[in-house]
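Replying to the earlier thread about multi-chain prediction with a worked example.

Input:
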Amino acid sequence: MVPIGVPVEHVIALAVALFVIGVLGVLLRKSVIVMLMSVELMLNAANLLFVVFAERWGVARGQTISFFVMAVAAAEAAVGLAILIGVFRTHNTTDVDELRDLLEQS
Amino acid sequence: MDVFVFYAAAAITLLGASMVLVLANPLRAAMALILSLGALSVIYVLLHAQFVAVMQLLVYAGAIIVLFVFVIMLLNLEDPKTRRSWPWVAGVFTIIGGLSYGLARGLMVDDNQFITSGPPHVNALSKDYGTVEQVGREIMTTFVLPFEMLSVLLLVAVVGAVVISKKRL
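Result:
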């Protein structure tokens, strides 16, 4: 039990659900920008697990790690969106199905 | 009371996340993401992680989402047909999610598995647990090297973002 009286399994279930929604967002959406948002959701699911287990063990180290994860997420979003702007400038779309320059010409 | 707040916040988190998945307009998806991450920060407060909760709001609502919204508006994105037609993917990953949850739960419920073998703790949270002071002290002592590397990473990310998105150097 976490101190607030919620079984730790429920928090884990929340994190798993959040992660699955993030994966589905990356796989099912076509817009690159929404895919990046879904990646943020997945990172947040991982963060939630860090925080809940930190509290479960009474060691604040997990919170420190989640702080680092957040900073890396910020860096990732900045670079990802910059790439998106560059791609949009040359291709005029953010649809991943139309961005197939790396595919062999067929 | 706390329990009720937790479940309400969890429901809002999942609602916001599902809206990110479903809403066609990217701007609305970004707003739904704020909803989700804000509710998640409520959960962080309940888990005695005040510092992480505040950082969550500052970094995500204050920086990342603003960046997303700026890019969406800059590119004037609006794509109505925005979803793939792979309905089976949703099923497969829901099953995978259920299995991994079941695995985690199975590992915890069995005796002598990782959770139950940990030190007993729950009522032994120190008074300053999760405060800026404690987390900050840890960052500045144990994790000072990763912290400095993180600042280098952020610098590289900023420079890289400018270089990539600039038309000509």
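The two ends of chain A are 57 Å apart (CA to CA).

Feel free to reuse this layout for your own posts.
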